[in-house]
Hints:
Blueprint: E1 2-3, H1 12-21, E2 28-32, E3 35-39, E4 45-50, H2 60-65, E5 77-81, H3 87-95, E6 100-105, H4 108-111, E7 126-130, H5 133-138, E8 144-149, E9 152-153, E10 156-157, H6 164-173, E11 174-184, H7 188-202, E12 206-210, E13 215-221, H8 233-244, H9 248-261
Parallel strand pairs: 5-6, 5-8, 6-7, 8-11
Antiparallel strand pairs: 1-2, 2-3, 3-4, 9-10, 11-13, 12-13
Amino acid sequence: MVRLLEPAHSCRQSLWERLLDGTYDKPFILDTGRLRNLQFDLDAVQSVMRLDDPYQLSLAYTRKMMAFLLFNRSPERILMLGLGGGSLAKFCYRRLPSTAITTVELNPDVIALREAFRIPADDDRFRIIHGDSADYTAELGPGKDVILADACDRTGVAPEVQGVEFYQNVWRRLSPGGVFVMNLCADRLSAATLLAKIRHVFGEFVTLPVRRDGNLIVFAFKKDLLEIPWQQLESNAIQLRQQLGLDFPRFVERIALDWKLRGGQSLPV
């Protein structure tokens, strides 16, 4: 079943034609049995929610973005750039009860689907802001322990999070031990360009590929990469798997392998 953000009196035939030919320009809901999808067109799924377990991370890339906990198991402040169906926001809200979470979303039509995706109401540690991610990170404010950028539109990485100035502002907004995590939903050429910009600002970084959809998760750090306590990652991973049920030990293995494949010196994990 397809649900569109349109008034009841709208012409259904016209809406279906726009949906089928790809000219419909708003996000919509596609319910497929036990799953609810957020989509911008019929070909690409932006977010997935299990109706019987709305807080579960259904997509592989969202599970892998949570690997930031390997580097900071108890962040006080998380900034999320891009709401989508709220999978990461909901998971962090429920599973990290001591963490304050701010999410910035540019598209008001995405925010309008908040209740349909069971995203919690704003409270003393959770809020959603309608705004531009680049503008928000440029503002002065308290340091964030983790900044998650999952800002993708129907063409790939959203334009507002592609500029060098954006990455410079992200670096400034991070706390001294902060972690920046980005979902690179881009083709190889575009991804290479963005990775060069991230390296220019942060220096070296590590990555975690998502084979099923070709995305790449990037982890960059406010401090030097070699200052990370890599020896602790394996023990952190085992404890986090017991706590959250995600395959953190596999994340550690893949991060180390991907670093080696990119020509980096061996990480002590």
